[in-house]
Amino acid sequence: MPKVLRATHPSQSVRLFSKKDKKNTAAPAHHTAPHHKHAPSVGGTTHNEEPLVDLAKLQAKMERALTTLQKEFSGVRGGRPDPGMFDHLHVQAYGRSTPLSEVAQVTIKSPTLAVINVYDPEVLSSVNEAIKSSKLELNPRVDGNVVSVPLPKPSAETRESYVKLVSRYTETARQNIRKVRREGLDRVKRGGEGGKEGRTGVGEDEVRRNEKLIEAMTEEWVKKAGEMLERKRKEILTV
Predict the structure, then answer these.
(1) Angstrom distance (rounded) from CA 58 to CA 62
(2) Residue 202's pLDDT is what?
(3) Which of 169, 162, 174 has its CA nearest to residue 72?
(4) How far apart are CA 178 and CA 159, in angstroms?
(5) Which side of the chain, N or C, has fewer Cβ within a 10 Å radius?
């Protein structure tokens, strides 16, 4: 029987025949790619080696920067009221910090009024206090079993200040993404030079390939941050 060895590259296989097998055995039905000593695969890996850098881990860190940015955006009012403006709020309830969405439902009754239907009357005051102390700059009041929240129309000056605020948030997110980029490039450099955390015998082509992957990933997430800012800016300025 032929002996099949699997190459480290997922799309490759090598079939070895003894002289006897080679004489009487047909070629395998499926196409097998030629085996390369240093065939690269996704994630910056090379044949029989650990990856120079974990691209999935770097991407997850960049994505977290935008998750944080979205949370910060949710705390900034748009020109038109939306239930999502309360999504970032947490309430002290049942001995812990609890998302507002778990203890109440937000309804926009009119362009100037939001009503918070609280499921448990015991946390009414906590909901009221969470809204009052937030950066939304609102003055809620308890009305029976609900919290009423007047929504005054933000002035042009206020909206411009909100735009500046979200722009600062976005720049911080970009800086955090670039920090992750630098972390990845430093790791690749150490690997390419065979440093303390790196490996010996890594070619310049492999180093450059990993660097290009990190740069492309960085550009993608920085672009997404800019797109988020543009959407939020439009939301703030639309009345």
Answers:
(1) 6
(2) 63
(3) 169
(4) 29
(5) N
